[in-house]
Amino acid sequence: MLLPLMAVLIASAWPAAASTTTAAAQPAAACQRRCGDVDIPYPFGIGRGCYLYTGEGDVTFGLTCNRTADGSYRPFCWEYEVLDVSLRRGQARVRNDINRWCYNTTTRSMDAESTWWWDVSDSWFHVSDEGNRLVVVGCNSLAYVTSVNETEYMTGCMATCPSVGRLENGSCSGMGCCEAAIPRGINSYVVGFEEKFNTTSGAVGRCSYAVVVEAASFEFRTTYVTTGDFVESTGGKVPLVLDWVVGKETCREARRNATGYMCVSRDSECVDSRNGPGYLCNCSAGFEGNPYLLDGCQDINECEDSRFKYPCSVPGTCINTPGGFRCSCPDKTTGNAYFGTCEAKKSQLGVHIAIGVSIGIALLVIIMSSAYMIQQKRRLATVKRRYFNQHGGLLLFEEMKSNQGLSFTVFTKEELEEATNKFDERNVLGKGGNGTVYRGTLKDGRVVAIKRCKLINERQKKEFGKEMLILSQINHRNIVKLHGCCLEVEVPMLVYEFIPNGTLYQLIHGGRHGSRISFAARLKIAHEAAEALAYLHSWASPPIIHGDVKSPNMLIDENYTVKVSDFGASTLAPTDEAQFVTLVQGTCGYLDPEYMQTCKLTDKSDVYSFGVVLLELLTCRKALNLQALEEEKNLSSHFLLAMSENRLEGILDSQIQSEQSIELIEQMADLAKQCLDMSSEKRPSMRQVAEELDRLRKLAEHPWGRHESEELKKLLVRGSPSTFSEIELSNGYVSLTDSAYLGIQSPR
Ligand SMILES: *[C@@H]1O[C@H](CO)[C@@H](O)[C@H](O)[C@H]1NC(C)=O
Ligand SMILES: *[C@@H]1O[C@H](CO)[C@@H](O)[C@H](O)[C@H]1NC(C)=O
Ligand SMILES: *[C@@H]1O[C@H](CO)[C@@H](O)[C@H](O)[C@H]1NC(C)=O
Ligand SMILES: *[C@@H]1O[C@H](CO)[C@@H](O)[C@H](O)[C@H]1NC(C)=O
Ligand SMILES: *[C@@H]1O[C@H](CO)[C@@H](O)[C@H](O)[C@H]1NC(C)=O
Ligand SMILES: *[C@@H]1O[C@H](CO)[C@@H](O)[C@H](O)[C@H]1NC(C)=O
Ligand SMILES: *[C@@H]1O[C@H](CO)[C@@H](O)[C@H](O)[C@H]1NC(C)=O
Question: Where mainly found (predicted)?
Fold first, then answer.
């Protein structure tokens, strides 16, 4: 009596709800949601405004709640009784009737006593192919389902009863019962019986039955055949599963139009229908409720829900989370609370300690190694600074400060390492008595020659930087420029201007040009080299001693212009005998014999070495030739012997003998002999040598040079060092008589 009253109330509430016209509109709050013992969730509903409105005249979701013959209320959709509605599966179960095909004893023929057909083709339903089966019960019976107009599909099966005794309860496999799957996506069907089969032939029951039924709810009973109580035992009411959708487009399409989109609840998702275009909604995993209502999907409390009984292992604690749950072990225990056991934390403590300790050790190692590296770096820096200070770096800096505008650079070790590619062997230009010379390219692109010295004398270390500064100020056209030095290494490195062409040594002994150099060119070379050395000796006080005068240290360009290189090595020369034993300054063949005895390097040592260079120019022989005969091995002694035996011609280069008058050559040889005097006292100074060579050059160029006039003979004075004053006089005489022509410059 109460329910009809409610229906009236709802009907009166309808106009208010009708104002919301969009499909996604929510149903009215006060709707009848139950009919009999059937729940009716939205989108289904009873009364307008309570269900999903799908268009004029279409009442798919609109149900009626009618009182049936037995006095109970049942929901109906059209004429179909609704058994229940599942939102989760998107299905509704409706009552379906059983078709009967029976033998009429009166008419003596087969007749369809009950025919039931379905057509929901204009609705939002489909007959679920997954949920339903066509079931045929009978003996000698063939039944089928087909679409209403019989053109879309047809499927069926045949049930026979060869022996009634062999029928089995629960087995629907052809004997007394058969079943067939139905196609997917159908929304109408008609059941038919094949008329040729008639149940009376060997059958007990009068009728055959065919029905599309929910597969899960049907179970064959032998009595359906033997006593024909199928209809009676089921009450003529078997469930049929219908799939429904809430929209006829796909989820993708539906989401695009928010106005009509049905999945309005939070934590809901759209599911495409398996029957074709169309979608329905579902609460996301871990949520349940009605996805078609705002906030319809609610979190499942898995910890308390009986369906999730004991979600965690017994001692574990269940903690509900939105959309899920967590299992955790009680305090002070640990383990797998989901399906394992929780154990006391004690053992875990050990693991924690072990982890802590290993992390600690790792940290300690890292800290210690970085501390070590920092210390190493500091030590390196200290070493560098010590070397820098030892080598007079501070003195040098002070000097540089007070003398602005110097083109002297103090290079760092890294700069020079980079320039020479870490002192690569391929960059070696030459190796000498006191070090190795590398070719290097500085960052600014300048090509330099870097000399790495072998040893440095303790006493001279302090002054080294300053001396380098002095050397760097030497500016002479015949001397290679010193750019700078590097002090932060144990033995300082010198950085020179790089002269690309060859050395005098290569010019004379290199084979190709060899003896083809004219005498004039040889004089030019000798003179320029002598000038450079004289300049070095006179430029500062005490004199700067080259210390390693030799043909490989004289660089020559194509115009035979000389550049004396590798000077300043003398500052590195040892002065005490102890070091001398281990290091012989200079090069064999050029060594001053007196220096060998006294260990005192003087400017006259350079003169001696220069004498040997003169001999190389005159003879084109090497200063030391280990392949030669015993007495010819050392060029200077070989030469001096030849001089004393008056067989100079034998040793001289044949080219100059044919080109030049013997007098001039003899004078040059005589000069060499003076330079090579055993006693340094008796050797001429470098200045005197330069002047004599200058004089000889002019004589060689002078047209009179070819004449052997008396006057000229006066000029060609030969003599010991003591006669140099005469030479100077003679020189002065020449310059007086013909200075304009000869272009003589007065000596410095
Ligand atoms: C339910 O009742 C209404 C009115 O009471 C009637 O019009 C309708 O046909 C009934 N439906 C069924 C399936 O009996
Ligand atoms: C048999 O057919 C007759 C004539 O059509 C009909 O009157 C009778 O009800 C039928 N019998 C049964 C059991 O349906
Ligand atoms: C049969 O019915 C379906 C829909 O139910 C329709 O598409 C088809 O055209 C019909 N065929 C005939 C021959 O009527
Ligand atoms: C099947 O079950 C029914 C009762 O449900 C019983 O009467 C019948 O004898 C059973 N049939 C067989 C073959 O066991
Ligand atoms: C059905 O069976 C009966 C008895 O065997 C027979 O008389 C009758 O002709 C059969 N009907 C058909 C349609 O085959
Ligand atoms: C969106 O849906 C509403 C209601 O179903 C409909 O009126 C409207 O035309 C749709 N818009 C589009 C762009 O499809
Ligand atoms: C809806 O979700 C539940 C569990 O989250 C799932 O079992 C069910 O199959 C889903 N329904 C559809 C129609 O996908």
Answer: membrane
Mean pLDDT of 403-425: 80
Ligand nearest to the backbone CA of 90: 7
Q: What is the pLDDT of residues 560-578, one digit of tens each?
A: 889 888 765 555 444 554 4
The residue contributing the CA closest to ligand 7 atom 10 is: 88
From 198, 199, 204, 208, the mutation candidate for ligand 5 (largest count of ligand atoms within 8 A of CB) is 198
The CA R_g of the chain, rounded to the nearest whole Å, is 61
Contact 568, 437 (CB under 8 A): no
Which atom from ligand 4 is nearest to the alpha carbon of 169? Answer: 1
Which SS3 state, helix, strand or coil, does residue 161 take? Answer: coil
DSSP 508: H
Q: Which atom of ligand 2 is nearest to the CA of 113?
A: 14
Centroid of chain to Cα 357 = 33
Q: Is the CB of 169 under 6 A from ligand 4?
A: yes
Give CA–CA dist 610/548, Å, rounded: 9
- What is the 677 CA–ligand 2 centroid distance (Å)? 161
- Best residue among 248, 250, 257, 279 to mutate for probing ligand 6's pocket (most ligand atoms within 8 Å of CB) is 257
The CATH class, in words, for 504-742 is mainly alpha
150 in contact with ligand 3, CB cutoff 6 A: no
pLDDT (0 to 100) of residue 283: 93
Active site residues: 548
Return the SS3 of 321: strand
- Provide the CATH number for the domain formed by 393-497 in this structure: 3.30.200.20
- Supply the residue whose CA is at minimum distance from atom 10 of ligand 2: 104
Q: How far is CA 545 from CA 537, 568, 609, in A?
A: 6, 7, 12
The mean per-residue pLDDT over the stretch 274-282 comes to: 91
The answer to whether the 393-497 and 504-742 domains have the same CATH topology is: no
In order, the DSSP letters of 615-645 are HHHHH---SB-TTS-GGGSBHHHHHHHHHHT
Give the pLDDT score at 92. 94
Average pLDDT over residues 698-725: 51
pLDDT grade for 643, boundaries at 50, 70 and 90:
confident
Task: Give the SS3 label for residue 706.
Answer: helix
Q: Ligand 4: distance of its center to the CA of 224 in Å? A: 10
User: What span, in angstroms and rounded, lies between the C-alpha atoms of 497 and 495?
Assistant: 7
Mean pLDDT of all residues in 22-32 = 74
Sign of CA dihedral 633, 636, 637, 640: positive
Domain boundaries, the chain: 93-244, 261-299, 393-497, 504-742
Main-chain phi, psi angles of 661, to 5 degrees: -60, 140
Burial 276-305 (b: 16+ CB within 10 A, else e): eebbbbbbbebbbbbbbbeebbebbebbee
Q: Residue 198 C-alpha to ligand 5 middle, in angstroms?
A: 6
- Residue found under tokens 């030391």: 624
N- to C-terminal Cα separation, the chain:
144
Number of residues that this document lists for the chain: 748
| CA 88 – ligand 7 centroid, Å | 5
Average pLDDT, the chain: 79
Mean pLDDT comparison of 19-28, 370-379, 537-546, 667-676, highest-scoring range: 667-676
- The 10s digit of each residue's pLDDT in 298-324 is 998 888 887 777 678 777 788 888 888
Q: Known binder of ligand: residue 673?
A: no
Find the range with the poorest average confidence among 22-26, 609-613, 614-618, 728-732. 728-732
Does ligand 5 come within 6 angstroms of the Cβ of 111? Answer: no
Torsion of CA 647, 648, 654, 656, to 10 degrees: -150
- Confirm if 412 and 495 have CB atoms less than 8 A apart: no
